[in-house]
Amino acid sequence: MMEDLKQNLFSTIDKINEHVIGIRHDLHAHPELSGHEEHTKYLVKGILEASGYLIKESDKHFGLIADLRVDDNAKTIAIRADMDALPIEEQTGKPYASREEGIMHACGHDSHTAIALGTAIAMAEHQEDLPGNIRFIFQPSEESKEGGSVEMIEDGALEGVNGIFGLHAYPYLKTGEIGYKYGVMMASADIFTIEVFGKSAHGARPHEGVDAILVTAMIVNSLNHIVSRMIDPLHPAVISLGTVEGGRASNIICDHVILKGTVRTINEEVRNNIPLMMEDSIKGICKSMGATYHFDYEFGQPELINHHEMVDIIVQEAKEIIGEEHCIDLKDPVMGGEDFSEYLKIVPGAFFRLGTCNEAKKTCVSQHNSRFDVDDDALQIGMKIMGASALHFLTQKEL
Ligand SMILES: [Zn+2]
Ligand SMILES: [Zn+2]
Predict the structure, then answer these.
(1) Are 199 and 245 in contact (CB under 8 A)?
(2) Which terminal Cβ of the chain has fewer Cβ within 10 Å, N or C?
């Protein structure tokens, strides 16, 4: 019976595929930055309401929660899509390229939203046959440092939810392939600011001042020794400085420098130790040089850790849809961050990568690049894997 339902769901997905591609193009042409997803929200809401979903909105942000409930005693699976774009000027030259100056769907969140919407439409068509409840979480602000998933969780997005699935468009795999990963898939992402205070003086009389630039140079050097000399090489970590700002003129000893950077790890203990090591080092250098400092460290998204059995479900279903040879075990985690990790801290779930590279369509460019685009042919695969995995989860007893 389940097999019939799955096949019916797939034929509905085939039927609505062109419509879903159209939705993706509309979203792509009208990208909105994190926290400003208003047009996107109303487009999503209209489609979901027409399909009979129960919608929960917020007055604080543009995210929404949409429910298809069939049985209060049955399990509930959640499917999450992020909706925000990036401050990048699009250069793809595609007919559906961004009409908003300086804003672009350069991470593929337009495809995530379209895939979730298509899956939602198809599920609603077979509502009476569904073995459980389905919730769609349309999330804002994935690209912001706070991460919109936290807001959605605060709004109750995971209340009554037993499991969750999410995906990300991935230009390093071909359309028709997916990438999966058991355990840790992505790094935690923290940010920091270091301010160094020295004392200004004439450039010709350095002994009368405290050179904040020289102190900064020593700090930069020492921060680069933390990963190479103080952390177990078996635990990957990254400390990267993104900006250095300071100084006023070529002949004045600088008295104030601001440094900003990011830290990525895939291990909780390493993550907690890094800010302590950083501050020890900053403190020692400043003391020896007569400078003072201010160190601000903000913990961002945690590591993304996939649930073993939930990955199994994705892989089992994907093998049937695209063939075993097209399901790629990614083996190594990446040091990028993703706020889907917040959901995974609360309920079992899995995040997978949907291949979107098609050389002929120029969709093999990396994310956050002005020429990035998603191959439309990947949408159908995304909908089928999401839909089939949701049904699988709802009928599986153990999880
Ligand atoms: Zn991104
Ligand atoms: Zn993204």
Answers:
(1) no
(2) N
84 noted as active-site residue:
yes
Q: Which of 84, 151, 211, 338 is catalytic?
A: 84
Q: Give the ligand whose atoms come closest to the C-alpha of residue 339.
A: 2
For domain 2-186+303-395, give the CATH number: 3.40.630.10
- The ligand that comes nearest to the alpha carbon of residue 149 is 2
CB of 149 closer than 8 Å to CB of 339: yes
Please tell me the CATH code under which domain 188-301 is placed: 3.30.70.360
Q: Which ligand is nearest to the CA of 166?
A: 2
Residues around ion ligand 2, judged by CB within 5 A, are 107
Whether pTM > 0.85 for this model: the answer is yes
Q: What is the mean pLDDT of residues 300-304?
A: 94
Report the b/e string of 123-159 with b at 16+ CB within 10 A. Answer: bbbbeeebbbbbbbbbbbbbbeeebbbebbbebebbe
For ligand 2, the distance from its centroid to the CA atom of residue 104, given in whole angstroms, is 12
**pLDDT tens-place string over residues 194-221:** 999 999 999 999 999 999 999 999 999 9
142 catalytic? Reply is yes
The domain spans of the chain are 2-186+303-395, 188-301
